[in-house]
């Protein structure tokens, strides 16, 4: 048994290659192979969001604080609030993040396929992000 005490594992930062704005990550589950599940808490400052991306085996998001947005390509963005759970099916192009005016934190849970749990695509443009606020 491993007990990871709060504060015992350092936070990370979302890479500017894949995120816009200030994004902080904290590990929850980093299972060794052959397990392939991973879970992390992700905190987005107001205005911060992921780039567009897909997950090979899907992803679950559980919102823990603030006010956020999630958008599936071709559909309007949806506002998400603490207690909301979002399931993103395998291969579905999407992004998630904070609203322009509020920070948001979610827990993200996903599995790796052939060692990868995400395929990053283009950034969410400021125009698309602004439209998502409405
Ligand atoms: Mn995702």
Briefly summarize what is shown.
By secondary structure, the protein is mainly beta.
Description:
- By secondary structure, the protein is mainly beta.
- It has one domain: Jelly Rolls, CATH 2.60.120.10.
- The protein contains 1 helix and 13 strands, in the order E-E-E-E-E-E-E-E-E-E-E-E-E-H.
- The strands form 4 sheets. The protein has a 6-stranded antiparallel sheet, with no helix packed on it. A 3-stranded antiparallel sheet has the order 9-8-11, with no helix packed on it. A two-stranded antiparallel ribbon has the order 2-5.
- The protein is globular.
- The N and C termini lie far apart (47 Å).
- The model has no long low-confidence stretch (mean pLDDT 97).
- Bound molecules: manganese (II) ion.
- Manganese (II) ion (MN) binds next to strand 11.
Tags for this model:
134 residues, mainly beta, Jelly Rolls, six-stranded antiparallel sheet, three-stranded antiparallel sheet, binds manganese (II) ion
The helix/strand series, from N terminus to C terminus, equals EEEEEEEEEEEEEH
The share of residues in extended strands comes to 35-45%
- Give the helix/strand class: mainly beta
Distance separating the two termini = 47 Å
Which blocks of ≥5 consecutive residues have pLDDT under 50?
none
What number of domains? 1
Bound molecules: manganese (II) ion
Which CATH class applies here? Mainly Beta
**Widest sheet: strand order?**
1-3-4-12-7-10
CATH superfamily: Jelly Rolls
How much helix, percentage-wise, in residues?
Answer: under 10%
């Amino acid at each position: 048994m491993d007990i990871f005490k709060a504060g015992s594992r350092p936070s990370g930062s979302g890479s500017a290659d894949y995120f816009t704005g200030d994004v902080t990550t904290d590990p929850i589950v980093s299972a060794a192979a052959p397990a392939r599940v991973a879970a992390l808490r992700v905190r987005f400052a107001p205005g911060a969001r992921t780039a567009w991306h897909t997950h090979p085996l899907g992803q679950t998001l559980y919102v823990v604080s603030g006010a956020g947005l999630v958008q599936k390509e071709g559909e309007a963005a949806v506002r998400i609030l603490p207690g909301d759970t979002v399931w993103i099916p395998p291969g579905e192009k999407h992004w998630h993040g904070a609203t322009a005016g509020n920070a948001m934190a979610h827990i993200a849970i996903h599995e790796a396929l052939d060692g990868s749990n995400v395929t990053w695509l283009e950034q969410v443009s400021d125009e698309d992000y602004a439209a998502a606020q409405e």
